[in-house]
Amino acid sequence: QVQLVESGGGLVQTGGSLRLSCVGSGDSLRSYNMGWFRQAPGKDREFVAAIRRSGGYTYYSDFMKGRSTISRDKDQNTVYLQMDNLKPEDTAVYYCAAGMAVLSATRLASGYRYWGQGTQVTVSP
Predict the structure, then answer these.
(1) Which of 5, 49, 56, 61 qualifies as a cystine partner to 70, CB 3.0-4.6 A?
(2) pLDDT score of 101
(3) Distances (CA, A) of 22 to 15, 42, 69, 117
(4) Would you give the end-to-end CA distance of the chain in angstroms?
(5) What is the DSSP letter of 104?
(6) Pairing relation of β-strands 68-73 and 58-60?
């Protein structure tokens, strides 16, 4: 069992940056692959980025590749998502997720068992 709490969202202007944090409690996040997903009202949940349990492999969506970096601090039981050059279309609730996904499920919400409550990211024009 693991509990996840996201933070770091907020309101930024186009071109701005945010660093999202996901702090785990309960089980150590060292045991899990970690992902970030986002969901805007009326839209499906979208994959953003993921990092494998070892921390040695990272994955990015096409729309965030080159504008984001996912990382983890195992000692602090925290996963981060640094986002730069934000655009209005990035506006969404961003969710942290933990799971034991095999490689083929890394980019799928079904590959993750535990989810945080989300943090709102709003990018103004």
Answers:
(1) 49
(2) 75
(3) 23, 24, 14, 10
(4) 40
(5) G
(6) unpaired
45 φ, ψ (degrees, to nearest 5): -70, 130
What phi-psi label fits residue 41: left (phi over 0), alpha (psi between -120 and 50 degrees) or beta?
beta
The model's pLDDT over 58-102, given as tens digits with 9 standing for 90+, comes to 999 999 989 999 999 988 899 999 999 999 999 999 999 999 878
> What is the pLDDT, as a whole number, of residue 55?
77
Cβ(99)–Cβ(35) below 8 Å: yes
pLDDT at residue 38, rounded to an integer:
98
d(CA 37, CA 49): 7
Which position has the higher pLDDT, 24 or 101?
A: 24
Q: What's the rounded Cα separation, in Å, for the pair 109 and 76?
A: 25
Q: Across the beta sheet with 18-26, what order do the strands follow?
A: 2-7, 18-26, 78-83, 68-73
